[in-house]
Structure formats: structure tokens, C-alpha cells
Design a protein that fits this description.
Largest sheet: 10 strands, mixed
Number of domains: 2
CATH architecture of the largest domain: 3-Layer(aba) Sandwich
CATH topology of the largest domain: Rossmann fold
Radius of gyration: 20 Å
Strand order of the largest sheet: 3-2-1-4-5-10-9-6-7-8
Shape: globular
Number of strands: 10
CATH superfamily of the largest domain: HUPs
């Protein structure tokens, strides 16, 4: 069951949406929730080449930027505390931490079941990849706990709604199996309508059999309804197109999938992780 949630906050629009969803999940599952306001002081005060005599000027700019970031995070944490009480969350903690976001999340996540992140939060680091912050990418790749990514704007009724369907992308690979089982074990399938989509190039019949086995697990963990959708290579596009297109058609408010998973030489659903991450307009539950 879902007993503890860590929400990483930096004041970005998607982290504010992450706050809303994290609090709703905590209320529904009666979980402890911690809002962690992260000030990336390591990035703000990073060493940089400056003109001769410019160190004092850089230090002043760093101090101002650090103060602005601190004020932003404190305001976010204050708002988080105010939202928690009317949301009916029984156990709440909110605190600020300074440092590298990746290291902070890695350290703090050890005492939580689920990490909730804004899809486009933690942007102030070198080497950003497309629209996905490098920090978020590294959390997904390295974190042993599941990660729930939340977009800037929650579509439809929002991922906290118990009415909207959930889409599970499942191909039987280790990564997708771990994501499916963790999603079910945390109780996130309970009371929900869940569709499982499987893409198998060999035949749609085999794909539907695979999806049906996943549905059995979800029903055993309390899913209100399950629907298996098996597609062959002539019935679907790429894995990413299948996932995104199916989610759009269903108006799903959450996608569950394995992240960066491998099967043999070629990746199956894992090969499309980057494409789904960059294009997905809804919440993503990821586990690798």
C-alpha cells in the first residue's frame, strides 16, 4: 500500500501540479506526504570563468539569485502547507533543502514509497535534454522507487480523479512488469478503470493474451474494471505512437509504463520512453 509520498517542489508550474496530485493521492490513500522545497544552491553558486576583477560582481549576483530562489521555495512550501489541511491529509511535512536536486532526491527518497515530480521542474542544470530536465531524466533512470511525473496542466478531470481511466503499457518485459506490479502493490489501481495495451509484432492474439494476464493482477488488487487491448504490427504504429494515441482516445489521466527497459538486443516499450516523456500531456507513472 501507498504509505508515504515525497513531492519535490521548486516553484515551477509542473511542480505546483505535482503538489496538487500528491496531496490528492495522500488524502485518498491516507498516506504521509512530504513536500520538499529544493533550492539548487550548488548550481547557483557553481564556479564559472569571469573577467579579471569580476569575482565580487559574480558573488553578488549569485547571492541575489540564491535569495530569489529561497523566497520562491519558501512561498511554495507555505502554499503547500495551506493546501494540505483543507485537502484532508492527516500527516504532512514541509521543509526546505539546499543542494543538488538529484542528490537531495536520492537521499530523501529512501524513506518514501513514491516520488512525485513536475515534468519540467528542476530545469536549472547543465546539459538539458530537449524539454526534459536532465535532473528529472537522471531520477527516472537511477531511482529504484517509482516516479510519478506531472505535467504543467492536468488534463481533463485531473490525475487525482477516480473517474478517469488509466492506461498501462505492458509487454511482459522486466521493466514493464516491475511498473505494473509496483503500481498494483501501492494500491493505485484500486477502484479505477484500467486499460492495458500490449503491442506484439508477431500477432494481436498473443498481444491480447499478454494484456489479459496483466488485467488479472490489476483485478486482484482492486481495479474496478480492466480491459485488455492487444495490437499486432499491422494495427498500430510505433510503441510511443500506440501509447500516446491510445491514451488520447481513452482520455486517460495517467499512463503506467516501464522506463528505459530492455528485452534482448532491442528495447521494446523502453525504447519509446524518451518520446513519451517529451510528448505526453498527462501524468506518467514510471518504474525501471
Amino acid at each position: 500500500m501507498l504509505r508515504s509520498i515525497l513531492i519535490a517542489l521548486d516553484g515551477s508550474p509542473s511542480s505546483l501540479q505535482a503538489s496538487e496530485l500528491g496531496l490528492e493521492l495522500a488524502r485518498r490513500h491516507r498516506s504521509h506526504v512530504e513536500g520538499l522545497g529544493i533550492v539548487n544552491s550548488a548550481w547557483i553558486q557553481r564556479p564559472e570563468a569571469v573577467p579579471l576583477g569580476g569575482m565580487a560582481y559574480k558573488a553578488a549576483l549569485d547571492l541575489r539569485e540564491l535569495q530569489d530562489a529561497s523566497e520562491r521555495v519558501e512561498a511554495v512550501l507555505d502554499g503547500f502547507r495551506k493546501k494540505a489541511e483543507p485537502a484532508g491529509v492527516a500527516s504532512v511535512e514541509a521543509r526546505r533543502v539546499d543542494g543538488d536536486p538529484l542528490q537531495v532526491i536520492e537521499t530523501e527518497a529512501a524513506s518514501h514509497d513514491l516520488i512525485v515530480l513536475g515534468h519540467r521542474s528542476m530545469f536549472d542544470v547543465d546539459g538539458e535534454i530537449c524539454e526534459l530536465p536532465l535532473c528529472v531524466d537522471r531520477v527516472i533512470r537511477g531511482e529504484p522507487r517509482p516516479v510519478l511525473l506531472v505535467p504543467d496542466e492536468a488534463p481533463g478531470s485531473g490525475a487525482g480523479s477516480s473517474q478517469a481511466p488509466i492506461l498501462v503499457a505492458f509487454d511482459g518485459s522486466p521493466a514493464s512488469s516491475r511498473a505494473l506490479h509496483m503500481f498494483a502493490l501501492l494500491g493505485l489501481a484500486a477502484g479505477r478503470i484500467v486499460h492495458v495495451v500490449t503491442l506484439d509484432p508477431s500477432s494481436s492474439r498473443r498481444a491480447e493474451e499478454t494484456a489479459s494476464r496483466a488485467c488479472i493482477i490489476l483485478r486482484r488488487h482492486g481495479a474496478a474494471e480492466t480491459h485488455a487491448l492487444g495490437l499486432g504490427d499491422r494495427e498500430a504504429g510505433t510503441a510511443a505512437e500506440t501509447i500516446l494515441g491510445t491514451a488520447k482516445a481513452l482520455r486517460a489521466d495517467m499512463i503506467v509504463m516501464g522506463a528505459y527497459g530492455h528485452r534482448g538486443i532491442q528495447e521494446i516499450f523502453g525504447s519509446c520512453t524518451r518520446e513519451v516523456l517529451n510528448a505526453c500531456p498527462t501524468a506518467l507513472f514510471l518504474h525501471h
